[in-house]
Design brief:
Length: 497
């Protein structure tokens, strides 16, 4: 069974889970962020088109994020730790088979699909669980955890470039696969949020007693009213209620002990039905659907930067090493942005939705600047990537808490699953479109214009959410006023009659 968020989760193990989730993101997103460096090596080795080569990264990053519903389904069937173990196994197998690739299609399958699904299954449970372990400072905690992806993006592209230079792309992938196996260790630390069974049983017993007591007291009052004696009624009610409460508490405790096995079965059925209802609630929430569309658009834009960026920067005369440094600048400030976004989002005076929308617009502007000629120098690109990474990190730091704001903490698991599906769609569609534009025009400039535009559009789409909330609020207020007026009219008629 998947862990359930407690109303007051805490304890020192929450910090252990936070560190494990941070390291999982460091490894998985670090390897995924290196695809731009590997694409240059793949293009030289296989002599394939840019569009075909970009599909490797599109599948990998797309399934890392887009496999969210699969991860959510497995998380409902087994523990988060088991799902994460399965992801570690799949991603390690996929990376170990990659060095034997005879063609691009082989890499699409093993690097793109197998490794991508494995990354998803190890990432989603850890990220979700880190949010469930913290209540009061959830925004800051998830921001810090998310910063692991930025730090991994700083380290792994440079390390991958060094390993490719020393051992070739084949040999480097063996080493990367060995590093990925550390996720087995981090997955072992993902224990569920503890829930006190004793507290739950006591609450159930008290609820049963209150229910039965209320029914018996009603019957006692009816009997007393029939007798018509006020004094005897009072004595009878007091003594009867006292004796009845004592007997019922004893009976309820005995009843609960005798039917424990039945209750467990019924509880499982109730939990399953409750989760299905939550699933329907997630899909029927208009604001959440707007949020998912928003995620599709900005992921289309950012995925082009990840996958096509290093190759695009070489068009201005930058070396592969300088292009890698530019990508490192982007990922470095993602780390800072994730912490800033999480910390600022934890302040009550800050509207997290407004901050998220602003970050979308600003990120799109930074991407558009990369397509403009006055930015086509090493220093200018580094500055642009530093700014873009900082703002994009804020988006990542707010993803979980905005999802909680929209759906509530109890629907976080299902919500993250569908949200990551939207992210995966954007990451799968973006790079091939950018690669196709590169093949047609001979340059990625138009692709980066498109990337910046769709990211700005993402911010515009998300503006619909507060407008929709305002509309719902006004409609609800009008309905309540109509009901109040109707009730007052009914009361007036009754008084006149």
């Amino acid at each position: 069974m998947a862990p359930v968020a407690a109303s007051n989760p805490g304890g020192s193990w929450g910090y252990v889970v936070g560190v494990a989730a941070f390291m999982i993101q460091f490894v998985t997103f670090g390897i995924a962020a290196s695809i731009g460096v590997y694409n240059i090596a793949f293009l030289e080795h296989f002599q394939s088109s840019v569009a075909a080569t970009s599909m490797i990264g599109a599948f990998n990053i797309g399934l890392l994020l887009g496999g969210g519903p699969l991860a959510s389904f497995l998380m409902r069937k087994m523990s988060y730790r088991k799902v994460s173990f399965l992801g570690s196994l799949l991603s390690s197998i996929g990376l170990l088979f990659c060095p034997f690739a005879p063609n691009i299609i082989y890499l699409d399958v093993f690097y793109g699909v197998v490794t991508g699904v494995g990354f998803c299954l190890v990432y989603v449970p850890s990220h979700t669980l880190s949010g469930l372990y913290f209540d009061k400072h959830r925004s800051l905690a998830t921001g810090i955890v998310t910063s692991g992806s930025g730090l991994g993006g700083v380290v792994f592209p440079y390390v991958s470039h060094f390993l490719i230079t020393e051992y070739g792309w084949n040999g480097s992938l063996f080493i990367i696969a060995a590093v990925n196996m550390n996720n087995f260790v981090f997955s072992a630390l993902l224990l569920p949020v503890p829930v006190s069974k004793k507290t739950k049983d006591t609450a159930q017993t008290d609820e049963l007693v209150v229910m039965l007591t209320g029914t018996t007291n009603e019957r006692t009052a009816q009997i007393s009213n029939q007798n018509g004696d006020a004094e005897n009624k009072s004595i009878f009610e007091t003594e009867s209620a006292s004796n009845t409460n004592e007997n019922l508490r004893t009976s309820a405790e005995q009843y609960q002990r005798e039917t424990t096995k039945t209750n467990v079965s019924l509880s499982c059925n109730c939990i399953t039905a409750e989760k299905e209802m939550k699933n329907c609630y997630v899909l029927c929430n208009i604001i959440f659907l707007i949020y998912c569309i928003n995620n599709i658009f900005w992921n289309m834009g950012l995925s082009m930067v990840f996958v096509l960026g290093p190759g695009y920067f070489t068009e201005f005369g930058l070396s592969i090493e300088e292009s890698t440094i530019c990508l490192m600048c982007f990922n470095a400030t993602i780390t800072v942005g994730g912490i800033v976004g999480g910390g600022v989002g934890n302040l009550h005076c800050i509207n997290r939705m407004v901050l998220y929308i602003m970050a979308n617009f600003i990120t799109g502007v930074f991407i558009l600047m990369l397509a403009m000629p006055f930015v086509h120098t090493f220093g200018a690109i580094c500055l642009d990537m530093l700014g873009m990474g900082l703002v994009f990190g804020i988006i990542l730091g707010l993803l979980v808490v905005v999802t909680v704001d929209i759906l509530g903490v109890q629907s976080l698991g299902d919500g993250m699953g569908y949200l990551l599906l939207a992210n995966g769609i954007g990451n799968t569609v973006g790079p091939p479109i950018g690669g196709w534009i590169k093949d047609l025009t001979g340059s990625c400039m138009l692709a980066f214009y498109l990337a910046g535009t769709v990211t700005v559009v993402a911010g515009g789409v998300m503006l619909i959410a507060p407008v929709w909330e305002c509309f719902l609020s006004k409609t609800k207020h009008q309905v309540e006023e109509s009901r109040s007026e109707g009730l007052m009219e009914t009361t007036t008629v009754d008084v006149v009659v």
